[in-house]
């Protein structure tokens, strides 16, 4: 199962999760993901598991607190459902066009 599929599986119970380009910006609350970087782990013993880093963005029309709460829940779900390494927070934001609060983070994942 691909890492992207694992992310969707882990986050779907929290709400809508789509690739960034496919997001319905008129939704009140949703999450997006996109690949930031990735590589195959090779070592002297041969190929290792694939590692990828994804950016997860959590959006809410309610408040920054709601978007941040969704991001916190997403981090817990990802740790429970995937082989996760470092999670780093990105700057929060507000999209004036769609009046959306955003909480964003990057997560490093290994393919199971």
Structural overview:
The chain is elongated. The mean pLDDT is 91. Strands 1, 2, 3, 4, 5 and 6 form a six-stranded mixed beta sheet that branches. α1 (3-11) crosses α2. With 112 residues, it is of the alpha+beta class. The chain is built from two helices and six strands, in the order αβββαβββ. It has helices at 3-11, 64-81, and strands at residues 17-19, 29-43, 46-60, 83-89, 93-95, 100-110.
In brief, what are we looking at here?
This protein has 112 residues and is an alpha+beta fold. It has helices at 3-11, 64-81; strands at residues 17-19, 29-43, 46-60, 83-89, 93-95, 100-110.
Question: Layout of helices and strands, plus pairs?
Answer:
Elements (H helix, E strand, L loop, with lengths): L2 H9 L5 E3 L9 E15 L2 E15 L3 H18 L1 E7 L3 E3 L4 E11 L2
Parallel strand pairs: 1-2
Antiparallel strand pairs: 2-3, 3-6, 4-6, 5-6
What are the salient characteristics of this protein?
2 helices; about 25% helix; single chain; elongated; about 110 residues; alpha+beta
Query: What is the number of strand segments?
Result: 6
Q: How big a fraction of the residues is strand?
A: over 45%
Query: What is the CA-atom radius of gyration, in angstroms?
Result: 15 Å
Major beta sheet summary: 6 strands, mixed
Structural class based on helices, strands and sheet pairing: alpha+beta
List segments where confidence is low: pLDDT < 50 over at least 5 consecutive residues.
Answer: none
Label the overall shape: elongated
**Separate helix tally:** 2
What is the terminal separation in angstroms?
8 Å
H/E series, N to C?
HEEEHEEE
Mean pLDDT, all residues: 91
Q: Could you estimate the helical fraction of the residues in percent? A: 10-25%
